[in-house]
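Researcher: Quick one. two chains, 674 residues in total.
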Amino acid sequence: MDKFTHITATACPLNATNINTDQLLPARYLKWPRAAGLGKVLLQDLRFDTEGRELPDFPLNRPQWRDAKIIVAGRNFGCGSSREAAVYALYDYGVRCVIAPSFGDIFAGNAVQNELLTATVADDVAAELMSQLTTTPTTPVSVDLEQQTITCGNHSYGFIIDPVRRLRLLNGWDDIALTESFSERIAAFKAADRIHRNWAFPPE
Amino acid sequence: MSEAQTLIDKLWAAHEIVRREDGDSLLWVDRHYVHEGSFHAFSRLAERGAAVAEPGLTFGVADHYVPTRAPRDRIGNPEIARMVRQMDENAAKHRIKLFGLNDRRQGIVHVVGPEQGLTLPGLLIVCGDSHTSTHGALGAFAFGIGASEVAHVLMTQTIWQRRPKRMRITMDGQAAPGIGAKDIVLAIIAKIGADGATSHAIEFAGSAIRALSIEGRLTLCNMSIEAGARCGMVAPDQVTFEYVNGRPFAPKGTAFDQAVEAWSKLSTDNGAEFDREVRLDVAAIAPVVTWGTSPQHALPIDGCVPDPAGEADPARANELREAIDYMGLHPGQKLAAIAIDRAFIGSCTNARIEDLRAAAAVLAGRTSKVPGLVSPGSSLVKRQAEEEGLDRIFRDAGLEWGESGCSMCVGINGDIVAPGERCASTTNRNFRGRQGLGARTHLMSPAMVAAAAVAGHLSDVRPFLAGRKV
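Model:
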């Protein structure tokens, strides 16, 4: 995995709560392999009408935010289904960071596996960022993962991320390599467990 | 004497292999369930040339994409046929036991696991599906994971996790006749919100939980993800042990007795502390329906669509306005006056035998005013329902008696609600477009869906039960 340290980019406000993974990637695209280009169907049913025409009022369709790499959203972003393809759709569209007051747990776990930063901020910070971006959409936003800060114009805010997830993103760790370094401990656990909790193993 | 522990702490401790200084733990996985949608993870495995670490602890089920109305021997849609075939091939290649499309035990993974005795108290269970929380009903630590984590579990039989915060939801009081687990859990979500339990594991406790059947507990834990919880669980008790006993993959004979001895210790110690406590009087709960586009948009059936103008918080007012607009409703509209176009009884939330019985008790001798589909939770549930004559009641009422799968809950198999149509549904998510592009979903219990079907509009089920055995 590549390392994630900081990003400065256009940020798009999505002023809604509970933007769930069914919205981020509707179920009918789950059959698609990632190579099919999931970025083009990100938020499909909010970005396009049923005929496939762009809805010009949707923020990501407006000229000032089309190329956003950062999204600022309301509470509980990414709630719902565990579909990791929702993260692929965001990433493949070009999004590298989502700022919101809270995230679905499974979504946040999937994000860190795919170099997407979920920056948790207080409700009033999210509201302030959204209002600033609506007034001056061209103001670039900088997110610094090392310092855990978000800068927008003259304003700077802190954000929260699980410390382990932060380290994972900063170092571009591969979980499997990390786990394999504990293979002896895993084998010892399993051997002892087979004795202590024999009932936990299904009959052959 | 060690410190008083919660059930959550005990299950965590029993699976912890490594605890890193930074707070993450590597946990042992007892059961890994995979389905057709796990193809991203199998591709990851193929890229690495890796093997499945514990094929004996990995079980496959064909559920997400399988047809539930169309013939199953020749799948018409080539993409779906490919998904089902891919699952067959991956299972064969990695020597994973598969409950495939033609297996008599096939069904929705969260119904099949408990039904087969694969899901047991004390286990740590993962699956690439958010409703894996369902299995906590038997006293397991069970949660949904994404494709990268599925690949990690396939390769190592372990998973990295941060210890969740602990929430206890205590429910006392006796539920009124006609009130089921679905009403209870929707009332909880309405109370704490769709992110009310984010980063928490929930233990459901109290006399009302002890009084629930395993089917009801499964519904409750299933929906805990809709409150944002990492997982939900109920401490195993005599009801659990009796449910598990004799199931095909459950321990037998003395092994079962030893297991029960171990499982009996899986409860929260007196004095153990939770990060958050919520209490609810179940006796006060009326039948609940959702009116909007989040499970937290749930109200008693005698309520009305909320008025955004009455909301002080502009963000909340905006959320209500958008939901009302999408749902084609107006503020103040009586919920019991909302006409429906379709009914769906199915999904991992509410398609077990008890759910079908509850719906049939309302439908017996009556006719549905709208078309509808009943998709049993598993092929074995389907067979049992037919033995009990329930299929006849559904058919006589004018509903379609389908096959088992995720079906119209998520619509990936092509069984969808048409744009603009309104569906009374026993499923778990009323998100925009969840049941199909432009579909409008109202969540409720199986008995409430049956009542809505008979009336042609959302209805209080209780008058329909007068003089009937439920």
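Chain B has a mean pLDDT of 96.
Researcher: Thanks, that's what I needed.
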